[in-house]
């Protein structure tokens, strides 16, 4: 079964007349030529005129001059044109190769495929994708937990590399952008068969990504419900049963921790991220907050809000708002750690209940305040068990 909106591509009879795809373009165009055509994805010669808007791409093969395709491009600002130019036609380039009418990453009539319900409708994906790009912490975490090693991902929030808790599992992975901006050209260069994006991926970006390869964007769920995103990733990878085993194991482990706690060991807990301009309180609906509740802690009133990940920064004078029995404190960078050192010298910080009792625990900011997924959940549970054992 071919993807909707495309046709098989091959040389016309006698190799004379070019085959043209779609008819929704404007006069302005640019040329993209595959150098040699035997490995069209690996060697490409891109050239375009100095236009502010380009509406279509011609794709030709030097070794098969009778094969030409014309592909419309979305209307985008010029600064993003180069990335989309490289991305949009890649799903079609393998048509240049003799005897290969189905684009790489597309589902052929004789190949197995599956459909996944996503935020942008039902998407047909390869049943066994060989090259996966995972855009976002949850997508990468979930894929790795399910035994799939993606070929591309985004750098972690506040960093320039993969989150440290995952870096050892994907030492050679290509970075294809940041949390703030995905580099479409880098995504295309990774030659994915499947792209798994974050649940908050906007429509414009989705449209650009799906021109590269089938793209799965999880349906928006209630805020902080990371398990539903993991289930969508699993469906795209054909790993639903494995995902349910992982999620059930996490739930059972959390319950076991709660059952082992004595009645006097429970109390209120809050997770904060220390920023240079003061701490922010993380919502109890985030993954770490949900796991704290499942393991027996009560939600601090300061964290009992929904719909956003954290509060605005609190001034040192208002630190009393985070006065819980236990504080889990995260930082994402050296500036935050310096700010924490300064706060420890402040009388308002010293007066907090958790500070007086020695119940302030510094934890990994990537895992506790930014990441979500089965591997991150396991790390949070590791920390909870370790820290409570020493309480």
From TrEMBL:
Gene3D superfamilies: Nitrogenase molybdenum iron protein domain (3.40.50.1980). The keyword Signal applies. The keyword NAD does not apply. It comes from Streptomyces phyllanthi. This is Iron-siderophore ABC transporter substrate-binding protein. It is found in: Cell envelope. Coiled coil: none annotated. Keywords: Signal, Transport. It comes from the Bacteria. One of its GO terms (biological process) is iron coordination entity transport. Residues 131-391 form the Fe/B12 periplasmic-binding domain. Belongs to the bacterial solute-binding protein 8 family. One of its GO terms (cellular component) is outer membrane-bounded periplasmic space.
